[in-house]
């Protein structure tokens, strides 16, 4: 709690960027890049989320309620800036503290960076044509995977632990007080060799992706929005000197409800609730519920 209080005092916040999307709060999957979607030259987001694992779902989609509390707190600093009129770049750095049975572990999660291009600009009005931003995303394995954990409870596992390259698009459309978006993303993770008490050999991951829509209503300086994101990861192949085995694919859906307020020029504060238990047919994953706060500063062109 001392770490949480310090973070809250020093920063403020997490999760929903204005007229963009929210990603899964946990589960170790790659979500879409935090691209600049408005008419800004740069944005900086500081965010804080707290989540609790409420259920484990097996490969046969059987649910088991989590009896032992497991919580995580994630501080995320995310920035993006324009390279030119239509090109942009960004970086996302998360720091996570996981707690279970009075034990805890803190450190970096997987870091992501992106290059984006606005391929459908809004240079003139169209009733139907959306604004389109495509992006390439690189994931750096700065967080350990569950196979690299040195903790008996696995608390030092704070990411997928693989290099990954992804491609995606964000389509946005506004009409009067309403705004909507569709987020599509696919990525390929790359193999790595590890050697520890758990496993010695090569981990070979596959493809993954995420897709989902969102909708928001705006009035004065407020916005109420919701979105859902379906997330999928291929099975991981474990190759050792004596055997080859394979995990099961992972899938789940993450739904978010958020409220945002523009309280100063180019300053937005948001609060959001995310639930991974409401939609889809999850399998081979742990499901969480989380609350998040965010503070975002934007700079005009």
Q: Which secondary structure elements does this structure contain, and how are they paired or packed?
A:
Layout: H1 2-10, E1 40-57, E2 63-65, E3 70-82, E4 87-100, E5 103-108, E6 111-120, E7 131-140, E8 164-175, E9 178-189, E10 192-195, E11 200-204, E12 207-219, E13 222-233, E14 237-239, E15 244-246, E16 250-264, E17 267-275, E18 285-300
Antiparallel strand pairs: 1-2, 1-3, 1-18, 3-4, 4-5, 4-6, 6-7, 7-8, 8-9, 9-12, 10-11, 11-14, 12-13, 13-16, 14-15, 16-17, 17-18
What this model shows, in words?
This protein has 301 residues and is an all-beta fold. Helix content is 3%, strand content 59%. It has one helix and 18 strands. 40% of the residues are buried.
Q: Structural class per helix/strand content?
A: mainly beta
Give the N-terminus to C-terminus distance in angstroms: 40 Å
Overall pLDDT: 88
Parts with pLDDT < 50 across at least 5 consecutive residues? 1-32
Q: Helical content, roughly?
A: under 10%
Total number of beta strands: 18
């Amino acid at each position: 709690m001392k770490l949480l209080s310090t973070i809250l005092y020093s920063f403020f916040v997490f999760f929903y960027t204005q007229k963009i999307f929210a990603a899964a709060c946990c589960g170790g999957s790659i979500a879409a890049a935090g691209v600049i979607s408005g008419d800004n030259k740069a944005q900086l987001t500081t965010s804080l989320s707290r989540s609790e694992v409420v259920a484990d779902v097996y490969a046969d989609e059987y649910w088991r309620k989590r009896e032992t509390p497991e919580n995580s707190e994630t501080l995320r600093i995310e920035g993006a800036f324009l390279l030119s009129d239509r090109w942009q770049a960004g970086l996302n750095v998360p720091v996570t503290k996981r707690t279970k049975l009075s034990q805890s572990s803190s450190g970096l999660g997987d870091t992501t960076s992106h290059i984006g291009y606005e391929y459908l600009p809004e240079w003139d009005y169209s009733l139907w044509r959306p604004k389109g931003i495509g992006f390439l995303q690189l994931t750096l394995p700065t967080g350990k995977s569950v196979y690299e954990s040195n903790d008996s409870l696995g608390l030092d596992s704070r990411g997928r632990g693989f290099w990954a390259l992804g491609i995606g698009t964000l389509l946005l459309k506004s009409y009067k007080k309403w705004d909507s978006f569709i987020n599509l993303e696919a990525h390929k993770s790359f193999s790595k060799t590890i050697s520890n008490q758990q496993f010695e050999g090569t981990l070979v991951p596959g493809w993954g992706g995420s897709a989902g829509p969102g909708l928001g209503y705006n009035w004065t300086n407020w916005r109420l929005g919701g979105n859902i994101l379906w997330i999928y990861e291929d099975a991981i192949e474990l190759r050792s000197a004596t055997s080859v085995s394979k995990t099961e694919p992972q899938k789940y859906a993450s739904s978010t409800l958020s409220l945002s307020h523009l309280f100063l020029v180019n300053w937005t504060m948001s609060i959001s609730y995310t639930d991974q238990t409401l939609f889809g047919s999850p399998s081979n994953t742990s499901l969480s519920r989380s609350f998040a706060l965010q503070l975002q500063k934007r700079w005009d062109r």
